Amino acid sequence: MKNRWNEADANACNGDPLKLRVYTSHLQGQEPDLVLHGGGNTSVKINETNVFGEAEDILYVKGSGWDLATIKAEGFAPVNLARLLQMAEFETLTDIDMVKYQRMAMTNPSAPNPSVEAILHALIPFKFVDHTHADAVVAISNTPNGEEHIRNIYGDHMLIVPYVMPGFILAKKIYEMTKDFDWGSIEGMILLNHGIFTFHDDAKASYDLMVRNVSLAEEFLATQEVVELPDTTAQQPDLLTMARVRKEVSEAWKMPVLASLNHDRKAVSYSMLPNITDIADRGPLTPDHIIRTKRNPLMVGSDPVEDVGRYIDAYAKYFEDHNPGNLTQLDPAPRWAIWPGKGTMAFGNSVKNMNIIHDITAHTMKSIHQAEQLGGWKALSKKDLFEMEYWSLEQEKLKKGAKRKALQGRVALVTGAASGIGKACVESLLAQGAAVAAIDISESVHEFSQKEVLDIRCDVTDSSQMEEALKQTIVHFGGLDMVIANAGIFPKSFAINKMDDDTWSKSLDINVTSQQKLFTLTQPYLALGVDPAIVIIGSKNVPAPGPGASAYSVAKAGLTQLGRIAAMEFGGQGIRVNILHPNAVYDTAIWTDEVLAARAKHYGLTVQEYKTNNILQTEVTSNDVANLAVAMLGPLFAKTTGAQLPIDGGNERII
């Protein structure tokens, strides 16, 4: 375990205990072998003068919802230490009451709820307290001889605590174990199947003790000749199978979810362990993970419908076996999957949540493989894990999830996404919560920085490039629900008898033929999507063509006819196909200031008059087109297909 302490950074805290607490929290939060995504907690005890001029001891403890890697001073909840110590003397205390009483004891009502381990932190008579779920400690602990190994590693300088539920029960256990106890005789505590505590009156010393004691566990693993998972090359995944898995999981979850394949060499190696089916059913790395990962992963076989069905049935039995009678079953959908020979999959209702699952499962795989070499991975009992999964405080966390956006969990593909209408479509989709594959031949497609965007430079007329782009989309997001066919060109104007072959052919290749290839490639995945839909960006030139634009008008008319036929052919699979016909959208790359000025002058208008030269006398922007396109992908148009809709401010020739 690397010690990340930097004297200059520490000195910048100027001895302020809360700033030091933030600093050493970051050191631990940045180390994924110690904590992951909200795991662990830290605290510092500070004597402060309140508004009445009275000195009081305050425990600043990590607030609920904060992550140690990024926590700020305001992320620590200030709680009256004396009140917490009084709570430890209660014989019993429900978790809901504990949270209520802790909040009543806070000195800042706007601060976040204190960690559920606040009472335990209060009991430890040292200024700085650190708690992590170190991989090495948990890997050793979760084996048949785990407690024996832990005692041999740590001797008498760590207090060994058997597993009990976090919160008040754990605090009460420590309270009883440490009556008349010499805290100065130990450096910390090992919570079996859970994690490790260290503490000291000096911030650096407490952090150093964490690094030293976790390193002892890592060194023990090395002496046992525990090896890492070998590198194994993934088998080629069947992308349609992956899309089917995602569809079944979405139905089990009763909402669209994303799915991502981790097919790195370690994940593939783990997926191919001879006893992987047995290992997968034993439980998570730590009980804290169960709210994110559930007790076990889905095992993907040859039939996703049967695989997910078996998982749901097993979860229902697990709930029935352990339900005391007053609980309501949570959704039975898996949060991750093992796909033998292919790797692992993570499911989430957002890219952020999906990536959290990937991080947790990567550490799970590593630690389980280590534990298997120490006699076998042994997680907590199903009963203990059920109590954690259905713990009232964990249920409260679930209830506080952010409100879902309209397209959250759905996957879109946008062609011509680097600028103009295409770029606006990507941004509108993101605003509605979708994940987006943004495809364009331009290098500027890589300017999207959002993690919800997969930007792919691709020539839509090249079938092999499009196949690769679609493969990346499925591996990255699990499936496909929406397509905005926007890529196109507006060729130079020629009279029909002056048209050159290259101009004519290029317009047809990009504006029609590439779209037919796009529909051919995406249709099998859309058929497995959630409320699948295609929106085609057509043109006003279809119903109202003009002279000199035959190459463009004919191509867009052909695309419109293709869309109408696609609506009829794809409708049986639930895929909606609709067409938008924009006109006079001037905030695109082809309309430079010089071109706009010249066109306005030609008609004897100002630029603003030219932009608003329609019945409503309003300007139509790329965002206007994008917002309507995205609306047509959503529930408002759920019963509409084969439609053609103008967005032009009103055009007399069309009306």
Write the CATH fold name of the largest domain. Answer: L-fuculose-1-phosphate Aldolase
**Which ranges are low-confidence, i.e. pLDDT below 50, for 5 or more consecutive residues?**
none
CATH class of the largest domain: Alpha Beta
How do the strands line up in the largest sheet? 3-2-1-4-7-6-5
* Structural class computed from helices and strand pairing: alpha/beta
Q: Strand percentage, roughly? A: 5-15%
Helical content stands at 40-55%
Number of helices: 24
The count of β-strands is 18
Sketch the major β-sheet: 7 strands, mixed
How many domains make up the 3D coordinates? 3
Any guess at the CATH architecture of the largest domain?
A: 3-Layer(aba) Sandwich
What separation lies between the terminal Cα atoms? 72 Å
What name goes with the CATH superfamily of the largest domain? Class II aldolase/adducin N-terminal domain
Gyration radius, in Å = 30 Å
Could you say which overall geometry the principal axes of the C-alpha atoms support?
elongated
Overall mean pLDDT score?
95
Describe the model.
This protein is 42% helix and 14% strand. Strands 3-2-1-4-7-6-5 form a seven-stranded mixed beta sheet. A seven-stranded parallel beta sheet has the order 14-13-12-15-16-17-18, with helices on both faces. Helix 6 packs across helix 15 (351-372), helix 18 (420-431) packs across helix 24 and helix 20 runs parallel beside helix 21. The protein is an alpha/beta fold. The protein starts with 6 loop residues before the first helix and ends in an 8-residue tail after the last strand.
